[in-house]
Amino acid sequence: MKCKVCRAHAVVDIRRHNAAFCQDHFVDHVNSQVAKAIKEFKMVTAEDRLLVAVSGGKDSLAVWDILMNLGYDTTGFYLDLGIGGYSGRSKEAAVAFADSRGVKLIVRSLREEHGFSVPELSTLTGRVPCSGCGLNKRYEFNRAALEEGFDVLVTGHNLDDEVATLFGNVLGWNTQMLGRQRPVLEERVVSAGAARAFVRKIKPLIRIAERETAAYALIRGIDYIVEECPMVEGNTQHRYKEALTLLEEASPGTKHRMYFGFLKNVSDRFAEDRGATELIPCAGCGAPTVASGAHATGELMCSFCKTKALAQARRAEREDATGRGVKRR
Amino acid sequence: MKVKLRNPDRVVEVDGPRTVSALLNRLEVVSEAVLVIRDATLLTRDEPLGPDDELEVRPVLSGGSLPPGDGR
Questions:
Q1: Chain A partners of B62 at a C-beta cutoff of 8 Å?
Q2: Distance in angstroms (rounded) separating the CA atoms of residues A11 and A165
Q3: Is residue B65 in some structural domain?
Q4: A111 Cβ partners below 8 Å, 6+ apart?
Q5: How far apart are the CA of A71 and the nearest CA of chain B, in angstroms?
Q6: Cis before B8 (ω within 30)
Q7: Below-70 pLDDT ranges, chain A
Q8: Residues A241 and A318 occupy one common structural domain
Q9: Local confidence band at B70 (pLDDT 50, 70, 90 cut-offs)
Q10: What is the chain A residue with the closest CA to B58?
Q11: For residue B71, is it within any domain?
């Protein structure tokens, strides 16, 4: 195959675009696709300070690299989830990338901030690890962005992530989540005139397939962590990705058509379900939480604080039982 | 040819395939789900292969829990 641009030997073929690229023009292609998504969905301005949530994986490090290429003011944020050696190796990848580019990386640890890791939280609360992990990340990413004074939080969601989420939301007809599945989530306040509650969140990689972010990382010399999280086995999102990739293999462009067709033709039909839900400050931490959910349960605490309180209570019970010499069944 | 596979890491010996596509068919791997790498260079699906090649077939689909929203 020849490069679509310069006719040199190609190294990456993209079947849905019916195109192939040499290394340099593939990098140009990815950068231009991200710039196009940023412009199309009005994700950021040139003056915004961006906090990029990085995991040490290909997508988040790639999006950080691309945003730097495009001239944006970026800082990385790594959250140590405490998943054994995997977290150690992923942190090393994030730190090494930041060092290689000479850019700032903020590192926080879930255990140091809150007293538990993702595996411990799962064991204590019975919550599925990936669910607890997502809750922790949402909470800590937003908190870090607000505390450190950033305008925008960037995540490395790619086309495969978004179409798999869409597929899951359609399978369950989760109209509220369908209403909210947008490339940009605007910032929100608890009440008019109050400080920001949720920082603006953007997904600049929505036009880039996962195979392309991996290729981009490899070409750019980004030494990302290739191994899969040990807790992800059986993950529903992963199953959806595999199913959709089989469809993509048979009919290139399927993922792009489904996701961008949704954004163009369907998303606004769920605008009501998107819901301008009232936010109130959490009684535990002051972070914003959805008022209706809090009232319904009679508690004024956010999901994170409720889960953290449950984990702490279960740990205290276990320590108490152990201290009294009671054997747990 | 020697082919490195991931998750878990292992190396398998494969004889016969003359292109990347043929190799992936032999391994029963979906081409959209992997990159094929030789000497730190990516290969397109039609790239010819030789019997002494040392290759890596690297999966690209990650699972996990990137936060889909913010719970608002």
A1: 57-59, 210, 228-229, 232, 238
A2: 30
A3: no
A4: A80, A82, A117, A120
A5: 25
A6: yes
A7: 192-193, 273-277, 291-299, 325-329
A8: no
A9: very low
A10: A226
A11: no
